[in-house]
């Protein structure tokens, strides 16, 4: 475990659209402008879990709702290490945000050598199958009860093992998380598709030996803390989130002196980017070393500012002007997740919303390329409200689901809402009830 602190604690992050502004500006004020500082704890699955919280001065439960950024330390680190390494606290007062630095778990006292259970990594948290997703979910709920938090602006970033954990939280808490920013993290190719869209910016160092840019077995002195599953190449992180978010399959790329950048064309409001930083290894660009033996983060760019610019540009989309947004179950207990850009039915069917016609109560969507029978075609979904029919609050009809174009789907005659038993192409409308378990 002692090697884990040396290797997995350093970090690398990369830019998005604001790279030009953040390049050559290292993080100078690491923990200045702290705002209010609190250490908190809560019980999750019989364990006492802790986190450090920084809030703007005067911010309370009745203040204007503010973004919440969760920063996950690397393997072998802790909350204080993540704060010092990334410098996110300096944004608390300037941007009026809340920043939480959670602690992982470990076998030693005094918050030493802590790790996260990201699935294939790392160490005791992985071996003991610690439920870190439940911890972060509970943290979000607790902070949201005690302070005014904007539910559409909850973000997660992390370094190394914390970057891998950011991916897992993005997948498993996709109904709550707006965007993630894994730094020197990885995916492994066996991840389940997220149930809701989550914007993602990934930053990796091309000189990283612990998380090789071309994938493969973990390297560096901490390789024994993984379960041995080879990581996928850096760019596959972007491919995963592009598929999950309904983005174009092929990214565009640009190559500058500082980095190679990959961007996917995504539905409105979503973004997916991968930045591979040149001349940087397992470190957080513009930050501090994660440990005395950690790789040099350099000063070519300020990763923290770049991540925050990406977060600000990608709040969580909400289905507005209709009763559809959120998590639902239908008459047959099939689960749904719906927001501005995605209508997801069960585990396999996904419809990427192109337009909402809330005045006429229908939407037009492009069928996901992974749908088993209608991939790449277009769908029209009509809905109607169901007053006085608890627990059902609305119902829908797949009026057209194999239209060759969006225009032909739009031209399809609407479902007959006056006859909900047979008005959906001769069949009943599907009734929908709020899925309180999924909604958290």
Features:
disordered N terminus; single chain; 440 residues; alpha+beta; eight-stranded antiparallel barrel; 20% helix; 11 helices
What integer is the average pLDDT?
85
- C-alpha-based Rg, rounded: 22 Å
What is the N-to-C order of secondary-structure elements (H for helix, E for strand)? Answer: HHEEEHHEHHEHEEHEEEHEEEEEEEHEH
N/C terminus separation: 35 Å
Query: Considering DSSP H and I runs of 4 or more, what fraction of the residues is helical?
Result: 10-25%
- Low-confidence regions: 1-33
Structural class: alpha+beta
Largest sheet: 10 strands, mixed
Tally of strands: 18
Instruction: Name the beta content range.
Output: 25-35%
As laid out across the biggest beta sheet, the strand order is: 1-2-4-3-5-6-7-10-9-8
Q: Could you walk me through the main structural features you see in this protein, from its secondary elements to its overall organization?
A:
With 440 residues, this protein is of the alpha+beta class. The protein has helices at residues 2-7, 19-22, 79-86, 91-95, 123-127, 132-146, 161-172, 234-245, 303-313, 406-410, 436-439, and strands at 36-44, 47-55, 66-72, 98-102, 149-159, 179-183, 199-205, 252-255, 259-264, 272-277, 326-330, 335-338, 342-345, 349-357, 362-367, 378-385, 392-403, 430-434. The strands form two sheets. The chain has a ten-stranded mixed beta sheet, sandwiched between helices. Strands 11-12-13-14-15-16-17-18 form an eight-stranded antiparallel barrel. It is globular and about 70 Å long.
């Amino acid at each position: 475990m002692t090697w884990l602190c040396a290797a997995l604690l350093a970090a690398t992050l990369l830019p998005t659209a604001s790279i030009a502004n953040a390049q050559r500006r290292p993080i100078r004020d690491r923990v200045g402008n702290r705002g209010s500082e609190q250490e908190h704890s809560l019980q999750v699955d019989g364990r006492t879990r802790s986190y450090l919280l920084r809030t703007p001065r005067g911010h309370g439960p009745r203040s204007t709702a503010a973004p919440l950024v969760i920063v996950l330390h690397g393997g072998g680190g802790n909350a204080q290490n993540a704060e010092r390494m990334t410098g996110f606290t300096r944004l608390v007062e300037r941007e009026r945000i809340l920043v939480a630095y959670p602690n992982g778990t470990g076998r030693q006292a005094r918050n030493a050598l802590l790790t996260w259970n990201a699935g294939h990594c790392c160490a005791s948290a992985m071996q003991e199958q610690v439920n870190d997703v439940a911890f972060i979910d509970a943290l979000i709920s607790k902070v949201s009860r005690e302070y005014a938090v904007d539910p559409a602006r909850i973000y997660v970033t992390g370094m190394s093992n914390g970057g891998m954990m950011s991916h897992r939280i993005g997948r498993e808490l996709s109904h709550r998380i707006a965007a993630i920013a894994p730094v020197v993290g990885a995916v492994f190719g066996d991840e389940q598709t997220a149930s809701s869209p989550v914007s993602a910016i990934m930053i990796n160092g091309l000189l990283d030996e612990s998380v090789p840019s071309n994938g493969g077995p973990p390297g560096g002195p901490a390789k024994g803390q993984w379960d041995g599953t080879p990581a996928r190449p850096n760019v596959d992180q972007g491919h995963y989130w592009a598929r999950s978010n309904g983005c174009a399959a092929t990214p565009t790329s640009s190559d500058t002196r500082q980095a190679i950048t990959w961007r996917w064309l995504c539905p409105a409001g979503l973004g997916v980017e991968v930045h591979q930083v040149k001349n940087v290894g397992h470190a957080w660009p513009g930050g501090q070393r994660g440990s005395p033996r950690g790789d040099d983060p350099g000063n070519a760019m300020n990763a923290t500012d770049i991540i925050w610019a990406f977060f600000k540009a990608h709040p969580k989309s909400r289905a507005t002007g209709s009763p559809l947004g959120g998590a639902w179950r239908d008459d047959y207990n099939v689960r749904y997740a719906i927001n501005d850009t995605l209508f997801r039915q069960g585990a396999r069917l996904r419809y990427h919303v192109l337009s909402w016609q809330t005045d006429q109560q229908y939407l037009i969507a492009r069928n996901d390329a992974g749908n088993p029978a209608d991939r790449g075609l277009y769908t029209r979904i009509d809905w109607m409200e169901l007053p006085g029919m608890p627990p059902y609050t609305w119902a829908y009809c797949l009026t057209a689901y194999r239209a060759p174009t969006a225009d032909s789907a739009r031209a399809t005659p609407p479902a007959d809402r006056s006859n909900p038993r047979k008005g959906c192409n001769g069949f009943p409308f599907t009734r929908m009830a709020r899925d309180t378990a999924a909604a958290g």
